[in-house]
Amino acid sequence: MRGVKAEIPPADEPPPDGVPAPPDWLSDDARAEWLRVLPMLLNERRTLSLSDLPIFTNYCVAVGQVAEANRILNKEGMTFKGPSGWKKHPAHAILSDAMTQARQMATEMGLTPASRGRPGIKEGANDPAQPNLFGGTEL
Known about the structure:
Elements: H1 28-44, H2 53-76, E1 79-82, E2 85-88, H3 91-108, H4 113-117
Helix pairs in contact: 1-2, 2-3
């Protein structure tokens, strides 16, 4: 991907009182991620608001799937012998997909070192008194 990612500004709405409980249907791993990360995003960084909880829930589900697929591969092995010979375990595809989804959503929420360190659109970027791309000022 090319281009500059926008800076993740603090949420406009006030943080909630306490941290919302995770949905009952989340796996134990997803629930643990919810409880580990959500307080930081809601209260410390203030980059997440209650309206963002559905995407955060998806992130937690993906993290839970990564953990579960890893446990399956650790228990059953990376390969299996089928009728036509040795093959990759099907959990590889689940693991790969969940890792990709978790990374993409983590980046969206500013949870990766790269996404936190990227320069973004700063305040005053559209200010006519600021120099434009070609060195002059807007008229």
